Amino acid sequence: MFRVLFQWRGIQIHSYPAMLYLGLVAGVIAGTYSSSLYGLNSARVYTAMILLIAPALIGSRLLFVAAHWERFRHEPRRIFRRSDGGAMMYGGLLLSLALSVPLLRRLEISFAGFWDMAAITILVGMIPVRIGCLLNGCCSGRPTSGKFGIVAPNENGVWRRRMPSQLLEAALAVVLLIASTFLRARFPYEGMLFLTAAFGYGAGRCWLEANRESTVRIGNLNLQLTIWGALAGFSAMSLLVIWLHRS
Fold first, then answer.
1. d(CA 64, CA 85)
2. pLDDT tens-digit profile of 140-177?
3. What pLDDT score does 107 carry?
4. Helices of type H across the chain
5. Does pLDDT of 92 surpass 90?
6. Does the pLDDT of residue 125 top 90, yes or no?
């Protein structure tokens, strides 16, 4: 396990927050640059992205903590401990979407256009973040004897040959990013990039859940599979409704 990337003058740089920071910076740069290419005010898009980072991080972390409450209830100080990885993106996405409505209206930015750029930001940022998960041991893959497995730890530090679930998710982000960038000019309306990326990511995560060692369950319900299946279904339905409305 490589939870500490390096130490400098007694200061420990932890892998997950370091890669999270790298992902945020790279994502915001990519999203802001893309906004200038597609006719949006890049300065206003940048402002909105910066303001929405905090609620995105808080929402993601709080949903993760709620889903793993048994782990945190006896040690509440761990909830925002920098060395502890763990976040559920869906929580941050929901909170950011809700808060973006009045913010984007105030900044006079198209809601659909902004979230197209935010999709690029999220996909770019996800790549280093999942590498951070691999180094941290969180989101570990299930044990396997297959030739595509890698020797890696889980969050408890147990090393085994595992499915590279974190790298597979990073690869999914790369594929969706390339496809979205290539197809963006062909999309007939704003918001289609976001919905297409959301559908692809939700569907991909449904498959990836089968390759993870542990899942979050509420009774017999697989919470993560339900969330990502709902995201894929909602995105597909939205695309269909908009297509029927425009035809």
1. 10
2. 889 998 888 999 888 788 899 999 999 999 999 999 99
3. 96
4. 15-37, 42-67, 69-72, 89-107, 111-136, 165-183, 192-209, 223-246
5. no
6. yes
Asked if residue 128 has pLDDT above 90, the reply is yes
| pLDDT confidence of residue 83 | 55
Residue 77 per-residue DSSP state: G
Residues 6+ apart with CB under 8 A from 46: 28, 32, 35
Per-residue pLDDT tens for 200-218? 999 998 888 888 887 777 7
C-alpha distances in angstroms, 9 versus 6, 12, 16, 83? 10, 8, 20, 18
Q: Are the C-beta atoms of 104 and 116 separated by less than 8 Å?
A: no
**pTM of the predicted model, to two decimals?**
0.88
Residue 81 pLDDT > 70, yes or no? no
Task: Name residues whose C-beta falls within 8 Å of residue 1's C-beta, 6 or more positions apart in sequence.
Answer: 135, 136, 137, 153, 157, 159
Cα–Cα distance for residue pair 29/15, rounded to 1 Å: 21
Q: Count how many residues are written for the chain.
A: 247
According to DSSP, the β-strands at 11-14 and 150-153 are: unpaired
Helix axes 192-209, 111-136, angle to 10 degrees: 30
Strands (E), 62-170: 150-153, 159-162
Rounded-to-integer distance, Cα 68 and Cα 62, Å:
10
Query: Among candidates 34, 3, 38, which has minimal Cα distance to 18?
Result: 3
Record the tokens describing residue 241, joined without a space. 């409704």
Distance CA 109, CA 222 (A): 37
